[in-house]
Amino acid sequence: MASQTALNLTTNDPRVVCSVPMSISYDADIDKAHAILLDLGGKHPKATQVCGCPLTLLGASGVVLTLDMWCADAFTAIALKCNMLEQAKKRFALEGIGLPLPQTTVVLKDDRRTD
Q1: Of the candidates 25, 44, 52, which has an alpha carbon nearest to the alpha carbon of residue 86?
Q2: Spatial contact of 56 and 21, defined as CB atoms under 8 Å apart
Q3: How many C-beta atoms lie closer than 10 Å to residue 37's C-beta?
Q4: Are 90 and 69 in contact (CB under 8 A)?
Q5: C-alpha to C-alpha distance for 47 and 17, rounded to whole angstroms
Q6: What Cα–Cα distance (Å) separates residue 77 from each residue in 1, 6, 25, 64, 105?
Q7: Which H or E run includes 73?
Q8: Closest CA to 74 of 17, 20, 12
Q9: Of the candidates 67, 61, 10, 74, which has an alpha carbon nearest to the alpha carbon of residue 38?
């Protein structure tokens, strides 16, 4: 037994996945935004591993890319998410990636009949 590795399945693993949803406008370059988010996540010291960055939502005013990263614990995840949102916003502005603005189209109809 002393020469074998023991795996304790009852220990709690404090690591969590930090998901950072980032909305971009429909006319933005999705591939460029995707590459930016992966780059930011890969360079962040609080992210231990980047899991991916899939497109997760086609919303009313934009699309959502969600960057998923492993980090040490839940407290780290909160700080990581806030920091990544700020970094992504700044980098998107530099790279010309537009953020969605809610838009509503109003159509006016004149249903009055003139007979």
Answers
A1: 44
A2: yes
A3: 26
A4: no
A5: 9
A6: 38, 29, 26, 19, 38
A7: none
A8: 17
A9: 67
* Residue 61: Cβ within 10 Å count: 13
- Which two structure tokens, joined as six digits, stand for 68? 């998923």
Closest CA to 76 of 40, 42, 48, 50: 48
Calpha distance 103→100 (Å, rounded): 9
Provide the total of helices (H) and of strands (E) in the chain, helices listed first: 2, 4
Q: What are the φ/ψ torsions at residue 19 (nearest 5 degrees)? A: -105, 125
CATH of domain 16-95: 3.30.70.100
Q: What is the pLDDT along the chain (115 residues), one digit of tens a residue?
A: 456 766 666 668 889 999 999 999 999 999 999 999 999 999 999 999 999 999 999 998 899 999 999 999 999 999 999 999 999 999 999 999 999 988 778 888 877 776 6
Which tokens sit at 57? 């939502």
Q: Which residue has the tokens 């399945």?
A: 9
